[in-house]
């Protein structure tokens, strides 16, 4: 079996290759959009798409198209005002939780990601960044949870994660470590026994937050690889409400059911961050509320994610209903 590292280098890196794999004409993509934000799609994720369907909801999330080059008022390069950090690689917007940008890159480039216009890729997490970040965390006893994020934090090696979690466990006021990652969804083999050990091997209570937007993303392989994790730690999902991907109650209800079947708890359903190039994914708030009420009528309360958005300068995510 191939390692996740070899799968990373083996993924699709151009839209025309991906379209050929799906038996679709190359005319479906935009070279200008691809030049603005590179194409990156692991083979596992591509294999979940339906060949011959240009409107496939998984393909739509990763295919560079001409709509991205439109200038739309209100859509900017830094919609979350995140370009000023507490310390290099540290975002501390919510009092008790500090977020570390452990790796700038991702295994998949989602076209709606706020990272597309953000210089995260230039960030490198060196020994010095880690020492300074730990110093920042040590100095603020109000922080009890550290979120490993990015980019995608699981781009880091299991050894690097084990080392960092071990250091965090040495800071008394920290009680939880949370990992925000889409990597297991697009490449389930990232869920290694060593990662499980790194997350569960200290006194810290681990939490895993996945990012899946469509029921078909909850694959058999993800289900199987997750089992040791769901046995030992809470696993949640956050999704983004996306036009043409999951903007109807039937799809969202199926997503919640699929998550439940793999013992993943739905957590947030986010409205889109208004990043330049992603306007065609937006579901307006009024419509989102209609879809959400419909979703609520179809599910037990514990499978309804919280509809929320991020507003810069607020002390928490803002609930929409
Ligand atoms: C979203 C976010 C968090 C986590 O918020 P929760 O509501 O606890 O899930 C923490 N820090 C930053 C900077 C965030 O953007
Ligand atoms: S940060 Fe998340 S949403 Fe953005 S490109 Fe990476 S995996 Fe996709």
TrEMBL record:
Mind telling me which PANTHER family this protein's record contains?
L-LYSINE 2,3-AMINOMUTASE, LYSINE 2,3-AMINOMUTASE-RELATED
Task: Report the residue ranges that make up the Radical SAM core domain in this protein.
Answer: 92-306
Which CDD domains does the entry link to?
A: Radical_SAM
Keywords on this record?
4Fe-4S, Iron, Iron-sulfur, Isomerase, Metal-binding, Pyridoxal phosphate, S-adenosyl-L-methionine
Residues with PTM N6-(pyridoxal phosphate)lysine: 317
Which Gene3D superfamilies does the record match to this protein?
A: Aldolase class I
Q: What are the coiled-coil residue ranges?
A: none
- For the ligand ([4Fe-4S] cluster), the binding residues are 106, 110, 113
Known catalysed reaction(s)? L-lysine = D-beta-lysine
Q: What is the name listed in the Swiss-Prot or TrEMBL entry for this protein?
A: L-lysine 2,3-aminomutase
Q: Note the Pfam families from the entry.
A: Radical_SAM (PF04055)
Please give the family membership noted in the entry: Belongs to the radical SAM superfamily. KamA family.
Entry's Gene Ontology molecular function annotations: 4 iron, 4 sulfur cluster binding; isomerase activity; metal ion binding
Q: Which InterPro entries match?
A: Aldolase_TIM, EpmB, Lys_aminomutase/Glu_NH3_mut, rSAM, rSAM_sf
Which cofactor is recorded for it?
A: pyridoxal 5'-phosphate; [4Fe-4S] cluster
Q: Which domain of life is it from?
A: Bacteria
Q: Which NCBIfam families match?
A: EFP_modif_epmB, KamA family radical SAM protein
Decide whether keyword S-adenosyl-L-methionine is in the record. yes
């Amino acid at each position: 079996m191939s390692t996740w590292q070899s799968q990373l280098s083996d993924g699709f890196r151009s839209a025309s290759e991906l379209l050929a794999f799906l038996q679709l004409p190359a005319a479906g993509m935009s070279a200008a959009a691809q030049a603005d934000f590179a194409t990156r799609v692991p083979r596992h994720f591509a294999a979940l798409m339906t060949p011959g369907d240009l409107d496939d909801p998984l393909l739509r999330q990763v295919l560079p198209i001409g709509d991205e080059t439109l200038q739309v008022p209100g859509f900017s390069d830094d919609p979350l005002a995140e370009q000023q950090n507490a310390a290099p690689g540290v975002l501390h917007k919510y009092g008790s939780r500090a977020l570390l940008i452990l790796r700038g890159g991702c295994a998949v480039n989602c076209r709606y990601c706020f990272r597309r216009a953000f210089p995260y890729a230039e960030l490198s997490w060196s020994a010095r960044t880690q020492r300074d970040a730990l110093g920042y965390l040590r100095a603020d006893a109000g922080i009890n949870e550290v979120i490993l994020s990015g980019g995608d934090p699981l781009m880091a090696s299991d050894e690097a994660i084990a080392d960092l979690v071990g250091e965090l466990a040495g800071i008394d006021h920290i009680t939880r470590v949370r990992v925000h990652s889409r990597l297991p969804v697009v490449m389930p083999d990232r869920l290694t026994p060593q990662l499980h050990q790194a997350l569960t091997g200290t006194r810290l209570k681990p939490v895993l937050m996945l990012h899946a937007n469509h029921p078909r993303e909850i694959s058999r392989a993800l289900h199987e690889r997750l089992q040791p994790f769901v046995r030992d730690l809470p696993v949640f999902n956050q999704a983004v409400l996306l036009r043409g991907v999951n903007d109807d109650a039937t799809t969202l209800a199926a997503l919640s059911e699929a998550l439940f079947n793999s013992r993943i708890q739905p957590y947030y359903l986010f409205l889109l961050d208004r990043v330049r190039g992603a306007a065609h994914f937006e579901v307006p708030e009024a419509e989102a509320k209609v879809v959400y009420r419909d979703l609520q009528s179809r599910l037990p309360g514990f499978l309804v994610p919280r509809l929320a958005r991020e507003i810069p300068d607020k002390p928490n995510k803002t609930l929409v209903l």
